[in-house]
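Hi, here's the filled form for the chain we discussed.

Project: internal
Contact: R.S.
Residues: 526
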Amino acid sequence: MRQRNNKALVTVTIPTFNSAKTLSLCLESIKRQTYKHIEINIIDGNSEDNTIKVAKSFGVSNVVNLPSSLLKARHKGVELAQGEYVLILDSDQILESNAIEKAYVMATKDHFDMLVFEERSYRNKTFTEKLFNMDRKLINKVNNLDPFTGVIMPRFFRTTLIKKAYDNIPKEMFANTGGPDHAIVYYEASLLSKKIDTVPNAVKHIEPDSIQHLLKKFYRWGYSSIDAHSGKYSSLMKKKERLRTGLFSKGLYMVSIGSIMLLLLKGIAFKTGFYVARLKNKSNINIFLSRIWTEAMQQNIKNIIYLLEKNSEAKIIDIGCGDGQESTLFKKKIGCEDIEGVDGLRGRLEVADKRGVTTIYADLEKKWQLPSNTYDVVISNQVIEHLVDIDNFIEEALRILKPGGYCVISTENLSSWHNVFALVFGFQDFSHHIIKKKHVNNPLSLHYGEKTASWSKEDHGGVDDSTYPHNKILTYRSLIKVFEEYGFKFENGRGSGYYPLFGQLSLIAARIDPYHSHFITVKMRK
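And the returned structure, exactly as it came back:
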């Protein structure tokens, strides 16, 4: 290994693509380093601006043209490294003048194999720059170095370690992986060594200065993350989709709010890019649409349960109980001994009966043969949208409830973002079913092309491939309004499913903005 004055060579590798605007500041910061035994290589993705010209103006001769993924570009830079240590730097990062010297001292004196370079925002002027600045303050204060739950990544590596880490990454990952490349490398390195620490106050990061630039950047990250979400790194990617650790701790209230706002913006762009990439693989469309639908529905059931009150003496009824699986969950939350279930499908009622639900057959479009002023709680999940006569449903719910009783109603949301965007692009909304013959409303619908069934089939057990038509879809506001029109009082409401997000991001977004979630649930008091 080449050395000067007994100091080891440090390789700085920088991947670039149309990076002329920031590269000069990055290279100037390397030039100013107090540690002088440095080599630089630049792996360029076939830039169309003056990136190469800027690199050569700073005397960088080792420039490789490699149109490829970010993971592959970084790997190439490490492969070419002659230094005992490698610094993985981005072209929008500016080093403090003593950053490499501090890292070298820590690595040699304390025998660290990898070091995080603590980052701060370069500017703090625009709205997005302020959000990034708050987010970085939170990250630095908490200093979570866990490769799964943290977002801090080491940049300074012992060369032998990082080369072994790259060797352990499956070869098929290198073709397209961009956004999560650093997380993957850190994960592999962490399996080889736990000797890691942080170099304080080491880097200033040039952040996106507008929401437009932010969305473009993280859209690309999401688009290039598709391979990482399956196979070896699926668990890693899933655990990365979460809020920052340490939120609202150590008095970090304002920066925590800023961090959450930033994460929502990044998450929307990231997931949009992710799903666009997924949808390009036609064989996987229904798999992933089904995944986010199932997740949204599971959260919807949790929302219903959340709105139910414990009352062991309550008399409750589930209108549209189906096979009774959810009815048993509702009964468990309330804590009563029995639950009645009403449905128009005899086959499903037979299953519900076996689950301990007291079942009642009824045509929900007609007056319900149930006693007035009898029930403390009326629950109805994904029923009202199937009805033609919503007035009858509300009137009957009001009639059978005791004074002071309440109902919890859940349905699809006409103003959910996936419906809004379908209409913007000229498609029918996902939620409505237009004709009886089959579903032709939207080609991306999970039920597109399937035949519809009629609620009047008394002997239908719900076991064929028919789906039931949606006749009237309400918005969150209109769902509340129609019940209020009949004398109910709104108490609480929740949303679930916030497309294209899923996981924790979807949960948070739907909680903040139920008006555009997929499923809406309201609690209305008589």
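Let me know if anything looks off before we file it.
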